[in-house]
Amino acid sequence: MRVTKLASLLLIAFCIVLAAQTDEQLLQKADQARFIEANSYGMLSRVIAERPDGKGEALMTIYNKRFAEGMRTRVEFLAPESLKGTIYLVVGDDIYFWQPGLLQPLKISGQQKIFGDASIAEAAGIQFSGKYSVKAKGDEKLDGRDALKLYLEATSEKIAFAKVTLWLDKKELKPIQAILHAVSGEPLKKTLYTKYAKLKDDEYAEEVIVEDLLFKSFKTVIQFSDVKIQELSDDLFDPTKLGK
Q: How many domains does the chain have?
């Protein structure tokens, strides 16, 4: 009886803490769970594309550095050979593409697929805080887990996906799943956050699975590893210096 009462009190306390979170704090928690908190770091990303006609793999280096306006991300292909040296640079809501042979970088959409069905937005990691606002929320069971379901809308037309339905683990506020929508509301992709890892006390998403909802047999697995906290040159994140 005493154990049951204690459990009930803990549940009530948890609900009070959750209710005290503002919408923006919920989005911040969702980002903190998936991204390394360091101001400058690099990591490897292995991308496995699975389609009915076969499987393909790519290897990329992802660099992140915090600037005054926020985090900038550089995605650079190491393999396959046909994509080696290709670079995607995310600066605020702008995304630049460069590959050997181009005289200058090109601006592209965040929905641009870079390998398999993974867009630059998924490869770099979709940031929710500051990029989306919460329009509605509610409780829901997802695969047997207690989840908080958030309906998000982008704060800028430049953001890759205009609407997102996001499920957070209700206890830890870590993303479990997201549905990425077009402006019309049509669901385009499902993103599953299947594995998390730690670097000392810092947690990050170790594996993300992207399922194409238009071509349901298409799936892309993105795995992150070999995180290194390091001071990176500002030049790596300057679009005017791509290819120079």
A: 1
Q: What's the pLDDT band for 215 if we cut at 50, 70, 90? A: confident
DSSP secondary structure string, 183-213?
TT--EEEEEEEEEEEEETTEEEEEEEEEEES
Q: Does residue 13 lie within any of the structural domains?
A: no
Give Cα 60 to chain centroid, integer Å: 15
Q: Would you give the end-to-end CA distance of the chain in angstroms?
A: 71
In a domain, 17, yes or no: no
Residue 226 has pLDDT above 70, yes or no: yes
Whole-model pTM? 0.87
Distance CA 91, CA 30 (A): 21
* Token couple for 108: 């592209």
Within-domain flag for 109? yes
Give the tens place of pLDDT for each residue, 3-35.
455 444 444 444 444 555 899 999 999 999 999
Q: Is residue 19 part of a domain?
A: no
Give the CATH number, domain containing residue 49.
2.50.20.10
